[in-house]
Design goal:
Helices cover about 70% and strands about 0% of the residues. It is mainly alpha-helical.
Length: about 170
Amino acid sequence: MSSGRRNQLKSLLLQIGEAMLEEEAREAEKEKMKFMEESCPVLSIPGCMQELQELCRKIHKQLDLVDDERYDMETKVTKSNKEIDDLKLMVQDLKGKFKKPALKRVKMSADAMLSALLGSKHKVSMDLRANLKQVKKEVKEEELKTGDWRKNIEDKAGMDGRKKMFETDA
C-alpha cells in the first residue's frame, strides 16, 4: 500500500471518528436535558405566602429524600470497596505470592552487612586484607655494596681524600 493511500485512509478514519464523537456528545446533551425536564419541573413562584410555604415544604421533603438516597449509595459503595479489598487479599493468599518491593542500592561495608544479617550477637569481621598471602621483600645485594654515599664523599673531600684516592689507585 502506498503512503498516499495510507494517509488518505487515516484521514477518512479520523473524519468518521470525529463525526461519531460529535453525535455522541449531542445524544448525551439530549439525555441530560430530558432528565432535567423530568426531575426538575419549571419553577413557578406563587404569589401568596401560604403557597410559598407549601412549596418550601415540598422542596425540603425532596431534599431529604435525595440526601437519604445519597447516604444509602455512599454506604453501598464503601461496603463494596471493603469487600473488593478483602477479596484481593484472599486472592493474594491463595496465590501465595506477594508483591516484591523495588530494591534500592545501599552503600554498606561488608562488616556492616554481616552485622545486620547476623545481628549484634555474632561478632564476625570480614577483613579481606588479613586473608591475603604475605610477601616478603628480598633485599638486593647491590644496595648493600654501595652503602652510604655521604661517607664516600666525605672521605674524598679535602687533601686527605685526594691522597687516599691516589693511594688506592696506585
